[in-house]
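We modelled the chain as a single entity of 225 amino acids. Its sequence is:
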Amino acid sequence: MSISEHAAQLLGRLAAGNCFGEPVTLVAATKTRTPAEINEAIAAGITDIGENKVQEFRDKFDLVQGGNRHFIGHLQTNKIKYLVGRTYLIQSLDRDELAAELSKRCVREGVTQDVLIEVNIGCEESKSGYPLSEAWAAYERIRATEGLRVRGFMAMLPLAGSEEEKAALVKDMRALFDRARQADENIRWLSMGMSGDWELCLGHGANMIRLGTAIFGERHYPGQA
């Protein structure tokens, strides 16, 4: 199927919402994808796109026609200047140092940046983010940080583990999300679910998913045959 067909099919499947009947936001993960591919997905109804690399975000920004621009990858503090004021949502706020530098830039430019707090739900050394046990305290700190507006949480499920174990992790994140939402009217999104596990995540309370392969097909890197 074409990109347009994949996008239309997914949007149709998501129309009923998550397990709570809440609307689901589909973010197209566009790492290595060309502006033409991204524009095809947008023309098919995709409203949100997410980049993992700041350089790709910059290079494609003016070539992509519309769409809410998300940043979903690990963010170095020296790259903040390229995103603040141009990014609909930074989903990967994973440490206090980054929050402090984002705040400085936002205050300097007179903007408020919407962010998701990244939680390392599987306690994996290969992933960044706050441990779940520290996520609430991090939320309270970042919520009080000038120039930042917390809109929810983001997490990635570990590859290892049973379906039951993964479902329990999503439920833990949903409990954190619900607690924050009761305290803060700005809380809107629980971003969990990628091409291999999005159905499980929606089945236990996520309301934003990040899909690349499911929309665009297998990823081809530069130099790959």
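As a brief sanity check on the tokenised model: The CA atoms of residues 124 and 158 lie 8 Å apart. The mean pLDDT is 95.
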